[in-house]
Specification:
Shape of chain B: rod-shaped
Largest sheet of chain A: none
Number of strands of chain B: 2
Shape of chain A: globular
Helix content of chain A: 55-70%
Largest interface: A-B, 40 and 31 residues
Number of helices of chain A: 10
Order of helices and strands of chain A: HHHHHHHHHH
Strand content of chain A: under 5%
Radius of gyration of chain B: 49 Å
Distance between the termini of chain A: 52 Å
Structural class of chain B: mainly alpha
Radius of gyration of chain A: 19 Å
Strand content of chain B: under 5%
Number of helices of chain B: 11
Number of strands of chain A: 0
Distance between the termini of chain B: 120 Å
Oligomer: heterodimer
């Protein structure tokens, strides 16, 4: 414990930090917040495609960590634990959003379907600006069903390992790999023009 | 399932270099002959790099301040709500006893508040018992202790009474006489054991 106290913040593991927080060190909690706030926001934002809602979800995630700090045990990686909380909250937010919306074909819950509607109106070739291209990619990600969206964000945007994703979403590694592959195939098919243009 | 479809299941592993060497060799052979699969693999590689380089969003500057405020609010709430769960955990009999005691205490406080000391004195002076006490000294209704204010006493009564008391006190204790003489006017005089 004494050794870890001397370590600069950057070198302390997440697991040590949460342990310190469990012992009453609120500075350790603040370090955790600083370490995870942006990466969690990035993950939740790519999932919800709404920055304000995403920030609310991340706030709630940290509140849950604060409230349930003693529920964490060293058996799991801290990052897995906090990503699981954020992912669950993001999915809940999606469901809540769906209930709030009026029942129409444009937003009848694409996120809850395993299939996607072909977007014939949209022509990615017309867009060359990189910001717009990012928007197009984001839009296509948001059209994936939540189970595909979540894994592709965790794998390709957040760059987490298959093993970690498997623990976060609580499905076998084989299923994660299969979902990532299918999500990528769908995305590349929809973004054909854009992806070929870049070559 | 045709060859392209079966290979497509391993495309992700292929672009991530996660396939076994012999499987890679077989896939390479297929890709060299199939332009469609070749294009798909190329797009998948491009997609991966595009997703990795998507701009990172950042939290607003007041994110931590808001979180801190929410935590403080949460702490306050938990402090307030700690009493209710404690009561809920208590045995039912103890809760009833506590409630009864509280009601009893509240009732006694309210009743005492309604009657001032002056009201007590008036009641004593006007009561039938006091009249009987005055008129029939040996009556069984005669109270052992009466409290009254000096200005309410009829003239001559105190002097007569004090004469009797002084004679008695002189025999018992000279200090008690001094106490009686130094009482300020208007203050309650308590006489005992008539």
């Amino acid at each position: 414990m004494e050794d870890s106290e001397k370590k600069p913040e950057a070198h302390i593991s997440d697991e040590d930090l949460i342990e310190r927080f469990q012992q009453g060190d609120t500075n350790a909690y603040e370090t955790i917040v600083r370490r995870y706030k942006d990466q969690l926001l990035n993950f939740v934002f790519r999932f919800l495609v709404n920055e304000e809602e995403a920030e609310d979800v991340v706030q709630e995630t940290f509140l849950r960590v604060y409230r349930n700090r003693f529920a964490y045990t060293r058996v799991a990686k801290f990052s897995t634990w906090i990503y699981t909380i954020a992912g669950n909250l993001a999915r809940t937010e999606l469901r809540r959003r769906k209930r709030r919306r009026l029942f129409s074909i444009s937003d009848m819950g694409l996120e809850d379907r395993d299939f996607e509607i072909a977007d014939d109106v949209f022509n990615p070739e017309a867009h060359v600006d990189s910001a717009l291209q990012e928007e197009i990619i984001q839009r296509e990600i948001s059209k994936l069903s939540p189970k595909f969206r979540e894994v592709i964000i965790l794998r390709d945007v957040q760059e987490l390992s298959y093993e970690e994703i498997s623990k976060i979403i609580r499905v076998p590694i084989g299923t994660v790999k299969s979902r990532v592959n299918r999500a990528r195939l769908r995305l590349q098919n929809r973004l054909k023009s854009l992806l070929e243009q870049r070559k | 399932m045709n060859t392209c479809e079966s290979f497509s299941e391993s495309f992700s592993d292929y672009v991530e270099n996660a396939v076994l060497p012999e499987q890679r060799q077989t896939m390479d052979v297929h890709l060299s002959r199939c332009s469609s699969c070749q294009a798909t693999v190329a797009r998948l590689s491009s997609l991966r790099s595009r997703l990795r380089t998507l701009p990172r969003v950042k939290t607003s500057p007041d994110f931590e301040a808001i979180l801190r405020a929410r935590i403080m609010l949460e702490r306050k709430k938990s402090r307030v709500s700690t009493f209710a769960p404690r009561v809920a955990r208590m045995p039912r009999a103890a809760v009833y006893a506590l409630a009864g005691l509280t009601i009893l205490l509240a009732t006694s406080v309210i009743l005492r508040g309604w009657q001032s000391p002056e009201a007590y004195t008036k009641r004593a002076l006007n009561s039938e018992e006091f009249y009987l006490y005055q008129t029939t000294p040996n009556s069984p209704l005669q109270p052992t202790k009466v409290s009254y204010t000096l200005d309410k006493i009829r003239p001559g009564y105190l002097q007569r009474h004090e004469r009797e008391a002084t004679a008695h006190d002189r025999a018992v204790s000279p200090d008690s006489i001094l106490e009686k003489q130094t009482l300020p006017p208007g203050q309650q005089l308590k006489t005992s054991s008539f």
